[in-house]
Amino acid sequence: MTLPPLRLKKNEDRRLRAGHLWVFSNEIDVARTPLTSFRPGDAVEIQDNTGRAIGSGYVNPGTLIAARLLSHAPGVMLNAALLEERITRALALRERLFARPFYRLVYGEGDRLPGLVIDRFGDVLVVQITTAGMERVRAELLEVLERLLAPAAVLLRNDTPARALEGLAQGVEEALGTVPERVEIEENGVRFEVPILGGQKTGWFYDHRPNRARLQAYAPGRRVLDVFSYVGSWGVQAAAAGAASVLCVDSSGAALDEVQRNALLNGVEDRVETHRADAWDALRELKAAGERFDIVVLDPPAFIKRRKDIKEGEQAYRRINQLALTLLAPDGVLVSASCSYHLSRDALLGALLRTSRAEGRELQVIEEGHQGPDHPMHPAIPETSYLKAFFVR
After folding, report:
1. pLDDT in tens, 126-153
2. DSSP for 282-322, written as a single string
3. Which one of the listed residues 283, 339, 387, 392 is annotated catalytic?
4. Nearest CA-CA partner of 343 in 368, 318, 372
5. In terms of CATH, what superfamily is 5-71?
6. Range(s) of the chain covered by CATH 3.40.50.150
7. Pick the CATH number of 184-392 from 3.50.50.60, 3.40.50.1000, 3.40.50.150, 3.30.470.20
8. Exposure on the CB side of residue 12, measured as CA atoms within 13 A
9. Which of 11, 221, 320, 371 lies 20 to 30 angstroms, CA to CA, from 301?
10. Which H or E run includes 93?
C-alpha cells in the first residue's frame, strides 16, 4: 500500500537508518510535506530528503516526536495483523522466561510497538496507550488480546501525562470484563496482592524483578530499611527471604496498608513494620535517633523527568544517598536505584562515590542491576534503557 509521504530535511535520516524509531518535528521538511496536512495518528511513509523510503510509521503533527517508525519497510500499516504478529513475538519471549503469567507483556519501542505498554497479571491485563497512532487501533488491539490470551478482564490505564502531550483524553476504563480492585501475583517465590485500580501506574513495577531477587541473598538475619516502599515489593521479599526485621517507609497510607496486607499474605507480618512519612523527613528522623540498618533500599520515583532538570535532580540523588549512607551499619549494603532515564549509570555511581567520600566511608560495588528482560532495550534507542541499580557495601 502506498502511504502519504513525510519527507525529512537533508541528513536527518542518519539516526533512523541506524535503527532509531523516532522522528522529531524539527527534522521534517515542512515546505514539501507540511505537518498541518496530517491528522494525529495518520499512517505515513517516512522518506529522506531525496524521496527514498526509510520506512513506515504514523504521525502526530502537534508533538515534539512527530512520527514513529513501525517498520523500515514501506507500506506497513499499524493494524490488527501487525499487532498480532508483534504481540505474539513478545509473548513468546515472556513464556520462554517466566513460568507464570506475571510480567510486562509489551514494552513499547522495545517490542517494536511504540505507544503501547501491557502488563499481565494472570488473566487480567492492564494496558496503557500513549500515542495517537496506537489510539487509532484500540478496538483492533482489544480484539487481538482476546484472541491471543482470552483474558478475563482488561483495564485501560490511560491516565498518563504522555497522553496529554499527544492531545488524547486521560482516564481509566474497564475495556473488558469486570476488573478486580486487586490481583494476586507471584514474584521470586513471594506472593503479592497488587492494587491495579487504585495503585501507581499499572499497579506493579515488574522492571526491578531481578534486582529484588538479588536482594534476597543479602537479607537473612539482617535489619532492612525499604524507602519509597510502595506496596512492599522490596521489603516483603526481604522478609520472606529471612530478614530479621523490615521497616517500610512511604508517604502513602494506602500503599502502607498494602504492605501490611502483603506481609500477612506471606506470613511475615511479625517482621515487617511501616512508617508513613516523607522519605527525606523519615531518613533525617532515623539518623537523629541513631538508628542503623544492615540493608537500606532506595528506589525513588524519577527525580529527573526532563533534561532541564538534570542538575537539580543529580543533587537530589546525591543528598538522599548521603542520608541513606548515614544509616548503614558497618559492612551494610545500600541498594541505590534510579528510574530516571536522564540520570546516567555513571552519574549515579559518581553520586555514590562522592557521598561516600563526604561521609568518610569506603564503598565496594558488589553488584549492578538493570531492568528485567520483560523490558527489552532497543539497541538504537537509548531511551528504552532507563533503570539502574547498584548494590554497594
Report:
1. 999 999 999 999 999 999 999 999 999 9
2. HHHHHHHTT--EEEEEE-PPPS--SGGGHHHHHHHHHHHHH
3. 339
4. 318
5. PUA domain (2.30.130.10)
6. 184-392
7. 3.40.50.150
8. 19
9. 221
10. helix 80-97
Asked if 40 and 68 count as a contact pair (C-beta separation under 8 A), the reply is: no
The CATH number of 80-176 is 3.30.750.80
Residue 23's beta-bridge partner residues?
Answer: 67
Q: Are strands 22-24 and 65-71 parallel, antiparallel or unpaired?
A: antiparallel
248 Cβ contact partners less than 8 Å away, ≥ 6 residues apart: 226, 229, 232, 235, 256, 259, 272, 273, 274, 275
**Contact at 8 Å (CB) between 228 and 205?**
no
Cell (9 digits) for 350: 559518581
248 catalytic residue (yes or no): no
**Type of residue found at 215:** L
Name the amino acid, one letter, at 65.
I
Which pTM does this prediction carry? 0.95
**Residue in 131, 105, 108, 109 with CA at minimum distance from that of residue 118:** 105
Length of the chain equals 393
What cell does 379 get? 539497541
Look up residue 229 and give its three cell numbers: 516502599
What is the band of 308 on the pLDDT scale with cuts at 50, 70, 90? confident
Helix (H/G/I), strand (E/B), else coil: 75 = coil
CATH 3.30.750.80 in the chain, residue ranges: 80-176
pLDDT in tens, 358-391: 888 999 999 999 999 999 999 999 999 999 999 9
What residue has cell string 502511504? Answer: 3
Residue corresponding to grid cell 540493608: 295
Considering only CA atoms, give the Rg of the chain.
Answer: 23
Angle at 60 (CA atoms; ends 54, 63), nearest 5 degrees: 110
Residue type at 311 in one-letter notation: K
